[in-house]
Amino acid sequence: MENISHKEQSTITRGIIKAAVLMSEYGAESILIEQTAQRLGKVLGASSVEISLIPSAIVLTTLYHGQSVTTTRRVHHKPINMNIVCQIQNIVLKMEKKEREVNYDISYLYTILKQLEPNYYNRWLVIFMVGIACASFAYLQGGDLKAVGITFIASSIAMFTRQELAKRRFVMIISFGVTAFVATVIAGLSKIYGFSETPNIALAASVLLLAPGFAFVNSILDSFKGYMMMGWGRWMDGMILTLATSVGIILAIAILGLKG
Predict the structure, then answer these.
(1) What is the pLDDT of residue 200?
(2) What 3-state class would DSSP assign to 65?
(3) Long-range contacts formed by 143-147: CB under 8 A, 24+ apart
(4) E strands, 124-217, where?
(5) Long-range contacts made by residues 6-12, C-beta under 8 angstroms, separation at least 24?
(6) Contact 175, 231 (CB under 8 A)
(7) pLDDT tens-digit readout, 167-183
(8) Maximum CA pair distance of the chain?
(9) pLDDT at residue 98, rounded to an integer
(10) How far lies 108's CA from each of 73, 92, 93, 134, in Å?
(11) Taxonomically, which superkingdom (predicted)?
């Protein structure tokens, strides 16, 4: 693109920030968001792209021969989904190749971004695999076979609960608290009725599906790479979810009257 009018530059800016917002919402690392925005700007004809990231919003400016356009978009956090991030990366790669048979311009970017949909695994497969993962942890920690079975049941039902709450658009804090409560109640019954000789292992392993590992890992990576606001924001997200999980566990233990 040789000459860009102010209107065209505004359209380009909105397209770039739309891609950046999608990546942020689905859990992309901050440096990847910035690099993707800059690459898109270069492909679409902008001289440079400047971007500012905070956990709740993105501010993006495109520059073209002294002419600048700035826009801001709010980020609504969604469940982690690297499929969306990978799809946007593939779009950028295609636009950079500039294949002759396709016109990879801003219209193409808008069209393809509207078509992006997160691809989820079958929900029953996820429930089964989460149950297997938590049960395996219980086994590795020395739980007996009954504790392993109880962990599988408790974590599977907890994952089903979490999915149902997410489907009904409950905020993640409530979802984590309620899910932890359900898992602890089910595992706690094994201790009350003496189903297992290692009930405490079942209690601990059944809530592992709620560990916000991705938030903590991204917070460390962002902080080390200079994105302190994003790092602290994601760290706080992880801490709040951990707190909500703890509240759910404590509430269940208090209601069941468990000790030790």
Answers:
(1) 92
(2) coil
(3) 143/196, 143/198, 143/201, 143/202, 143/205, 144/196, 144/197, 144/198, 146/190, 146/195, 146/196, 146/197, 147/190, 147/196, 147/197, 147/198, 147/199, 147/201, 147/202
(4) none
(5) 6/67, 6/69, 8/106, 9/46, 9/62, 9/64, 9/67, 9/69, 10/69, 10/71, 11/106, 12/41, 12/44, 12/45, 12/46, 12/62, 12/106
(6) no
(7) 898 988 999 999 999 99
(8) 77
(9) 73
(10) 21, 11, 13, 44
(11) Bacteria
Decide: 173 and 165 in contact? Cβ < 8 Å.
no
The values of phi and psi at residue 68, to 5°, are -125, 145
Going by C-alpha positions, the residue among 192, 202, 180 that lies closest to residue 250 is 180
- Distance (Å, whole) CA 113 – CA 94: 13
The span from the CA of 242 to the CA of 72, in Å, is 30
Tokens representing residue 7 in the block:
């209107």
DSSP letter at 5? Answer: -
Please state, in angstroms and rounded to a whole number, the distance separating the CA atoms of residues 44 and 118: 25
Place of tokens 């002419």: 67
Length of the chain (residues): 260
The predicted structure's pLDDT at residue 1: 46
User: Quick check: 183 and 250 in contact, CB under 8 A?
Assistant: no
The predicted model scores a pTM of: 0.84
Q: Which amino acid does the sequence have at 155?
A: S
Residue 190, pLDDT score: 86
Domain residue spans in the chain? 6-115, 123-256
- Cα distance between residue 232 and residue 108, in whole Å: 35
